[in-house]
């Protein structure tokens, strides 16, 4: 039986002075036949936790017959000119998939 495919969108946003929210969409290639859960946590790269974004972790649940879920991460604004900054969402402990 072939494995299903899940994709996560990447986001780009121009730096602003205001706080904003990045919404990551986790998309399955077909509706879930059973509840799917994945633990997730934000991971620093060039963007620093608490300075550039609010660290977040939890469990994403995609219900039966659904094909997507969302993770919202708050990003802090500032007025400084900086190079592009990156952070990641790391997944672990998949269940039901």
Structure description:
This protein is 0% helix and 45% strand. It is mostly beta strands and 97 residues long.
What structural keywords apply?
45% strand; mainly beta; 97 residues; 6 strands; three-stranded antiparallel β-sheet
Task: Compose a concise summary of this entry.
This protein is mainly beta and 97 residues long. Helices cover 0% and strands 45% of the residues. A 3-stranded antiparallel beta sheet has the order 1-2-5, with no helix packed on it.
Beta-strand proportion: over 45%
> Main β-sheet, in a few words?
3 strands, antiparallel
Shape: elongated
Given helix and strand content, the structural type is mainly beta
Q: Supply the number of helical segments.
A: 0
Strand arrangement in the largest pleated sheet: 1-2-5
The poorly predicted ranges are: none
H/E element order = EEEEEE
Gap from first CA to last CA: 12 Å
Question: Which range best describes the helical content: under 10%, 10-25%, 25-40%, 40-55%, 55-70% or over 70%?
Answer: under 10%
* Overall pLDDT metric: 86
> What does the radius of gyration come to?
15 Å
What does the oligomeric state look like here? single chain
DSSP, total strands: 6
